[in-house]
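Dear support,

Our group has been running a series of protein-ligand predictions, and this particular one with magnesium ion is the one our PI (initials K.S.) wants archived with full inputs and outputs. We had some confusion internally about which version of the output was final, so please treat the block below as the authoritative record. The input we submitted was:
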Amino acid sequence: PKYVYDFAEGNQFMADLLGGKGANLAEMTVMGLPVPPGFTITTEACRAYLTTGAMPEGLAAEVDEHLHALERAMGRKLGQVDQPLLVAVRSGARYSMPGMMDTVLDIGLTDDSVAGLAAWAGDERLAWDSYRRLVQMFGTTVLGVDAEHFTDALRHAKRTKGVAGDLGLDAGDLRALTATFKDIVRERAGREFPQDPREQLDMAIASVFASWRTDRARTYRHAEHIPEDLGTAVNVCAMVFGNLGDDSGTGVAFTRDPATGASGVYGDYLPNAQGEDVVAGIRNTLPLHRLADLQPQAHEQLMDIMATLEEHYRDLCDIEFTIERHKLWMLQTRVGKRTAAAAFRIANALREEGVIDADEALRRVTGAQLAQLMFPRFGDTDRVPLATGVAASPGAAVGEVVFDSATAVRRGEQGAAVILVRRETNPDDLDGMIHARAVLTSRGGKTSHAAVVARGLGRTCVCGAESLTIDAEARRFTTADGTVVAEGDVISVDGTAGTVYLGELAVAPSPVADYFEGRRTADSDDLLRAVDRIISHADRRHRLEVRANADTPQDAHRARRLGATGIGLCRTEHMFLGDRRTLVERLILASGEAARAEALAALLPLQRADFTRIFEEMDGLPVTIRLLDPPLHEFLPDHVELTARVAVAKALGQTDAPEDLLRAVDRLHEQNPMLGTRGVRLGLIIPELYDLQVRAIAEAAAVRIRAGGTPHVEIMVPLVGDARELEMVAARARRTVADVARESGVDIRYRIGTMIELPRAALTAGRIAESAAFFSFGTNDLTQTVWGFSRDDVEGSFFPVYLIEGVFEVSPFETIDREGVGRLIAIAVREGRAARPDLALGVCGEHGGDPASIRFFHEVGLDYVSCSPFRVPVARLEAGRAVV
Ligand code: PEP
Ligand code: MG
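Confirmed final output from the archive:
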């Protein structure tokens, strides 16, 4: 293979081979822009080096050949004694990894050539400064000497001389410092600083290759989801000097403002300096427009080039440039990173300017960026957090600490902003969570109850803040450093960063969320206009419908305003908690027909009212109501507590010890409730429960129809593993609806379908589809059962190891595991549709609101995704993006 490409041989599309920097240097070279001559050694050579530990065969000869060409182009030889050619050796991977890998400048300087550089530059100080920088950079990055040895020596030199800055050292000082640096190399690296320029070059190249494997590079790749096996390219480029005097300088620039997206160039310039000086922030830079006064010609050329680049790349470009004695050189360009707000503004501006079309504008933004824009945020702070945990549900919330649901409700209703702090939450905390601004727990990960429910409610949540010791009884928690926070104290919770602060941080509401919630119009701000235009285009292009998971009329209302075209999952669990729990308890424990009928009669009107209001909010749109799912024991008193109560009552000789209740609880106690009597199993052992729910649904539909409404009723059965389970429930449900239709004289249209959330259901989907009008993939349970790990426990335990070791790059509870869970979904889609071509298909697990997963659901052919109301705009955007 060919391992080395001259800049003139590549182009921007060769980034896999030449890295991002190399590909764009090539592109600029080919465009005829002033790029210093150079060449790129490919990522393939790097991969070969990393596998074998040796430079691949033929590479040395290719480097020779390209080095000679470079020398010819420059009319100078690498490190020649008079007027030496010096080169920069820079890393450059496929994806930008700023500062993570090695760069060595001024390669080619030696004891012999340093005088030649001084003569050419007419500046002895510059020559010695460059040489000492080379020894320092080479010593640390190539030879692995601890950087402190050099910085200590530099500090010592300045102290001896009595100067504060590097500029206080003259040529003689720097010459002495260079000698000291070479001593450090000899002592610490056990070898001389190499005096052969070509040896310097080869060692620098090898060191850049090897820097792919450093811990910090790995950590960065892990965080950014960059694959481990890409390797980096190496760019070897003639050095140009921005530090030759006031006619020289260096800078960075953007063709638009990368922070806001505002049009107009933007950048910084530093006269008489090298590139690192800008990055290091040692001296104050000038705004780019000042270059117009200092160097009018170079400025004008730079403006032309920036316009050319933006036109060529049709996007925001960032560049690095150097001016050497009035001559402008381009050292780098790339399509620039930008904030989420800038991404939307720039995409829309370029579309309005006619540079890109609406599809391309849609491609240029992401659901993740939109999500970021929708959350209120804290401003910057230099306070130290009280604790750090899992950033489970984004947002910024300030409020007083409460430790139980009842207090949250009470204080919330009194108008206080409260933060519910619990070790972990369970369904009984729901009311408290609804009344809280944020939820903070010390246990559990991103799919813990607290995290899932908080995301669903749009509440900020930090969970798994393990350094906190929460004492709910004493109504206080203690941090790692012993700070005690008591009930009523104010804290600030940053769900985007996963941090918690004592006291109140200032919060700014999100204008984008205000726009989607109907509190602001699109025309009030150019960001909102951009969001509006882009999401409207997504709505024109999408194939996937977006529904919402909503359990209350309020949620349904909000979901509709946010653009949902139906409810894909109405979980009926919470309708049975709170005050109604005793009614359910009575039903479960009822011993005779009469007692059971009485309990049912009490629940029916409550359920009917729930559904009536939801149908009203979603009039004309589908509403999928899921029959009760949670394990039985959740409706019964706590086993341990009850045992104690009975023991105490008996010891006191009381006659009314709740022994029957304890026996029932004993009987229903399960070791593994998530694999126990829940979902359809519950419906089959207490058929009256599902009868009740179906009757409530049908009666609510009848009420709505009589009122002139158009309810689209979908009844969904959870946790089905076999067609027979569904058939039994469906048969009873049909009879119940028919009864209601007869009684009310109303023709009730409805569909019965099932969740696909067990592997067996996916694998027998063809059979199940015979009695299901629709499937909704419950990817939370499906992920849990396919992997065989508990969705409530994993993240705090072995997940960190799995993530670090690369078993997966993102939690499979967050982004769909295409290979495993995704494959089962694909099978179920294929076999379900084969059995019933008009089968409707959707997903209602947490993944329905995850941008990366939505693309998969589109590809696999689902009809809709259903997600929490707050995620609906994000899902709309991604549904559109999946098409373009
Ligand atoms: C699921 O399992 O994906 C689902 C939507 O149901 P739940 O989260 O209520 O178990
Ligand atoms: Mg489920």
